[in-house]
């Protein structure tokens, strides 16, 4: 199978959403109550993602890997470029609240809120470069932040995710920026094989918030 890397378009969002649901099964079970979202909830989330895509600024990058024979989207990635130090305008609570939108009936709100709070606090601790007089992080370092990377389960281990990741790394190299990302246990081997170093591992105990199991997420970076 051969594939090509192309820019992701708004019209691709429904197909990407379906592929991501299959790729992120463990995450979906963590955040949502049943294994599968209702049609109504899926449509609402897709609509929200399309709106978010259309509202993204010039710092955002969205790419897809497409099967050259079938035209199927087999993988996708999203990253954001911060060419200057990022001044934090919103609190962790405000950022997390935005992540919970739109609320669907299947959402485990307590679990999702605690999970996203953990990740955002971790980012501020690792990437923070300036604090205010109260000790709160107010500025994050210049970086390229990989926000999402997935491969459809039927097409894994064929090089698509690595090719997308390399595109992200190349942009960071050209700009002289650090690549920052958060990895699941499944994604960790790919990142480490591509030269990323684990800085910190978070263990999220979902049972404390009404969820199930313990889940590990590792913060990585690569200095260009």
UniProtKB/TrEMBL annotation:
Cited CDD domains: NAT_SF
Gene3D superfamilies tied to this protein: 3.40.630.30
Pfam families according to UniProt: Acetyltransf_10
A GO molecular function held by the record: acyltransferase activity, transferring groups other than amino-acyl groups
SUPFAM superfamilies cross-referenced by the UniProt entry: Acyl-CoA N-acyltransferases (Nat)
Residues annotated as domain N-acetyltransferase: 79-211
InterPro entries: Acyl_CoA_acyltransferase, GNAT_dom, Trichothecene_AcTrans
PANTHER family per record: GNAT FAMILY ACETYLTRANSFERASE (PTHR42791), N-ACETYLTRANSFERASE DOMAIN-CONTAINING PROTEIN (PTHR42791:SF2)
Protein's name according to its UniProt entry: N-acetyltransferase domain-containing protein
Organism encoding this protein: Penicillium subrubescens
């Amino acid at each position: 199978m051969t594939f090509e890397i192309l820019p992701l378009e708004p019209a691709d969002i429904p197909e990407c959403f379906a592929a991501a649901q299959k790729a992120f099964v463990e995450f979906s079970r963590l955040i949502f109550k049943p294994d599968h979202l209702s049609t109504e909830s899926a449509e609402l989330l897709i609509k929200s993602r399309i709106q978010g895509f259309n509202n993204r600024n010039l710092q955002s990058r969205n790419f897809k890997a497409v099967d050259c024979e079938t035209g199927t989207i087999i993988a996708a990635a999203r990253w954001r470029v911060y060419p200057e130090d990022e001044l934090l305008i919103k609190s962790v609570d405000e950022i997390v609240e935005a992540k919970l939108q739109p609320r669907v009936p299947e959402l485990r709100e307590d679990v999702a809120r605690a999970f996203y709070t953990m990740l955002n606090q971790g980012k501020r601790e690792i990437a923070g470069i300036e604090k205010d007089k109260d000790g709160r992080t107010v500025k994050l370092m210049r970086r390229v932040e990989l926000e999402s990377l997935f491969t459809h389960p039927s097409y894994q281990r064929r090089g698509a995710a690595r090719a997308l990741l390399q595109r992200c790394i190349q942009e960071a190299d050209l700009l002289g920026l650090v690549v920052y990302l958060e990895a699941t246990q499944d994604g960790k081997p790919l990142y480490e094989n591509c030269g990323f170093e684990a800085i910190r591992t978070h263990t999220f105990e979902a049972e404390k918030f009404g969820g199930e199991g313990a889940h590990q997420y590792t913060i990585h970076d690569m200095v260009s």
